[in-house]
Amino acid sequence: MKKSRQTHHIDTRLTEEEYQIISLKAENYGIKKSQFMRNLALGYPLPPCRADQRVMMELITMHKNINRLGGLFKLWLMIHQDTKVNLGNRSYTSIEQLIDDIETTSQKILTISQKLL
């Protein structure tokens, strides 16, 4: 299908703030400002937002890092379970709660990142 040539031009006056907002949003979608405005005005779908993709990748990385942290901590506890380890004012009960909190946080991050897909 041959794309029709765009021959008409619409001038729009914007405040500096409006211009900056539109520019930033278009950049986040990876498209030109004119294409961003055209898509919005005509109800065309926008491409996937690059900012959302970056946030999703950061969430996935955080999920992986928290899982690694939890795994290393569990391993450390298993290695030292027979020896008296100075945990400061923490007991093994509160440490187990900490592990549960790490796992819960990791699961929440995973759930949020899956919603972004």
Write down the overall geometry.
rod-shaped
Total strands: the figure is: 0
Cα-based radius of gyration, to the nearest Å:
25 Å
Largest sheet: none
The percent of residues in helical segments reads 55-70%
Query: What's the number of domains?
Result: 2
The unreliable regions are: none
Which class best fits the helix and strand makeup? mainly alpha
What series of H and E elements makes up the topology?
Answer: HHHH
Query: How many separate helices?
Result: 4
* Beta-strand fraction estimate: under 5%
What is the mean pLDDT? 81
Could you give the distance between the termini? 30 Å
Describe the fold and architecture.
68% of the residues lie in helices and 0% in strands. By secondary structure, it is mainly alpha-helical. It folds into two domains: 35 residues, no CATH class; 67 residues. It is rod-shaped and about 80 Å long.
A few lines on this structure:
The protein has 117 residues and is mostly helical.
Question: Mind sketching the topology for me?
Answer:
Layout (H helix, E strand, L loop, with lengths): L15 H14 L3 H10 L7 H30 L12 H25 L1
Helix pairs in contact: 1-2, 3-4
Give a quick set of tags describing it.
2 domains; 68% helix; mainly alpha; 4 helices; rod-shaped; 117 residues
